[in-house]
């Protein structure tokens, strides 16, 4: 592979510092980037991102944001079905420009149980270009898991003596 090939990565973060109380929601954000010298063009219908989400939570509708150096960004369509987040090129090609092309996908998460919520789930994946349609100089740079610890909800009531 040429050094001028695209290098696609997906990086994941949460907005609660890794801990939340049951009964509250948080946001997971996955950022897809191209740090390679060449652009990465996805034909209509191609999958740009797949992230297998853990059970034990409900998920809000994903939104595409923070678009940088992407041609055809209006064709990026993301959805969550059967605990899988997928983003596809829909209605036209999408090109992540070389060295700086990126977009982020954010979605709300409402845990339904106490414990660790790890994304992707233990049997799943999180990968930009999961079907390998773009020839990259590094095909094995999946995104690292991101875990949020869901703690029991605690209600504190002050004792008032009259």
TrEMBL record:
InterPro entries per UniProt: Ig-like_fold
Gene3D superfamilies: Immunoglobulins
Name of this protein: DUF11 domain-containing protein
Species the sequence originates in: Roseiflexus castenholzii (strain DSM 13941 / HLO8)
